[in-house]
Amino acid sequence: MTTSTGPPRTSTDVATGDAHVVVACPPGLDVRRTLGRLRRGAGDPTWDSSPGEVWHATRRGDGPATLRLRPAAGGVRADAWGPAAEEVLADVPGLLGLRDDPTGFAAALHPVVARAHRTYAGLRLARGGDVWAAVVTAVLEQRVVGLDAMASWRRLVVRHGTPAPGPAPARLHVAPPPPVWGSLPVWEWRAAGVDAQRSDTVRRAAAVAHAFRADLAPAELARRLRTVPGIGPWTAAEVTARALGDPDAVQVGDAHLPHLVGWALTGRRTDDAGMLHLLAPWQGHRQRVLVLLAAAHLGHLPAYGPRGRRALPMR
């Protein structure tokens, strides 16, 4: 499923990238929906798209990189530029959800889940690979309306990140590395609409960012994250879901997920305890159920107030 036409090969031709690889994909893979869960709104400066291609600016151990994805015969062609081009190309199968293993997922246990699974059969759980970016975006989304968090992320990345390498769209930027986030002055955070609690959490996490690695198991990464004051179960689950494609992550403490699950599966609202009870039959694949229910039901739920998100108390 994840084989390619050969190993990435370097090139000096900017039309094809510093390196490229063609990744074989199964028919019906929904690239747009799979990648869309990683993008923090239409204005996310680390993502760009146009007909026939998707661009992503990211960072790995070797530094920044720009990735371009385009359809190719039998799969997706990935071109990459920048110091971390080879690392990013190696992560493309995970990014496309090709390392997502649904073995043991029993969609038929509930007709709503089964229907969503049929309707969105091409939707996979993407493994974003950039753990630090997932940490920052998740912390920014604590206790605020999603649009406000997206605006904060956009402003901070554009002001303190760097233009994406290669022939990328002009708006595309690579988010700054942890030391930059850790040293941002208070007025930059406030100008971006980020309160002291969230900015302090990012700074504390930046000091130990080396411990948050993409090669960790989701449970271990979540454990390490939760040693940082200000990071609780909601934030840790968001990070493992986005960065590692964790199929079992459950964002306990979310303002809306319990209602989504309760309404979809029982026709009634519920709370965190009720959500966990309803998801129990899919242990090991609870994030998969959440993603399918969100795809099928988002926008079709009764209105209970603003669509903000909150995190549980951190202590």
Automatic annotation (TrEMBL):
<protein>
    <submittedName>
        <fullName>DNA-3-methyladenine glycosylase 2 family protein</fullName>
    </submittedName>
</protein>
<keyword id="KW-0227">DNA damage</keyword>
<keyword id="KW-0234">DNA repair</keyword>
<dbReference type="InterPro" id="IPR051912">
    <property type="entry name" value="Alkylbase_DNA_Glycosylase/TA"/>
</dbReference>
<dbReference type="InterPro" id="IPR011257">
    <property type="entry name" value="DNA_glycosylase"/>
</dbReference>
